[in-house]
Amino acid sequence: MIPMQRRGLFTLAAAGAVMGAGLAAPTVLRAQTQLRTLADTLAGDNRFREFLNIITRGSMVDKFRQAAPMTVFAPIDAAFTGAPAGLIDQLLGGAQSGENRNDVDRTRLGALIDYHTVPGMLRAAELTGDRRLRTTNGADIALSSANGRLSLQNPAPAQQIAGFGAAGANVSARPAQVVQADIMASNGIIHAIDQVIWP
Predict the structure, then answer these.
(1) Is the dihedral of CA 20, 23, 29, 31 positive or negative?
(2) Is residue 82 part of a domain?
(3) What residue stretches are annotated with the FAS1 domain (predicted)?
(4) Is there a smaller number of Cβ atoms within 10 Å at the N or the C end of the chain?
(5) How many domains does the chain fold into?
(6) CATH no. for residue 188?
(7) 3-state DSSP call for residue 16?
(8) What is the extent of the structural domain holding 96?
């Protein structure tokens, strides 16, 4: 009688251990595969410091943490070297002595940031052919794909209603190239680009 009870206890303990391990495993797997938000993903990648600064100064960080999926064409830091002289500083509140660095042009910064975002989650494999995408600021962006390369540009500089002004007419017409695609986040996807795209 005693051996039977021991065997029963052993069987129950073993079953509990197996069940416990089975319950713990998914938690470990979830922790390993959990993605960060778009905002945190950008912050964790040193290539996007300038873009993240613009997002932060434009008070739009929460937008990049929200649940709604979004595709972000994020300019890498080197992309800002081709910006019109002084324009970024002007948007961020001025760089000249005597100007107030806190006087951020949030309306135009918002229009610029929104011109780099598209609603929904679009992987590189879905961005094929030549077409236009409607950005979150309401203006279109032209997409071209050829030989496995993706490029984007403003299809009609200074003619779109984008809440920014005519900056698109004053910059290089060279399209932005996607230099790294499909950087995944919990609420969207990032494609790194080598040029700022001006609305």
Answers:
(1) negative
(2) yes
(3) 35-197
(4) N
(5) 2
(6) 2.30.180.10
(7) helix
(8) 38-193
Residue 155, token pair as written in the block: 């299809």
Residues 46-102: tens digit of each pLDDT: 999 999 999 999 999 999 999 889 999 999 999 998 787 688 888 888 654 344 556
Do 30 and 42 share a structural domain? no
Amino acid identity for residue 87 in this structure: L
User: To which residue do tokens 């490029």 refer?
Assistant: 151
Return the DSSP state at 139: -
Give the H/E segment covering residue 28: helix 2-33
| Exposed / middle / buried, residue 80 (Cβ in 10 Å: 0-12, 13-18, 19+) | middle
For residues 176 and 58, is the Cβ–Cβ distance under 8 A? no
Residue 5 amino acid letter: Q
Tens digits of per-residue pLDDT, 154-178? 998 777 666 676 666 666 668 999 9
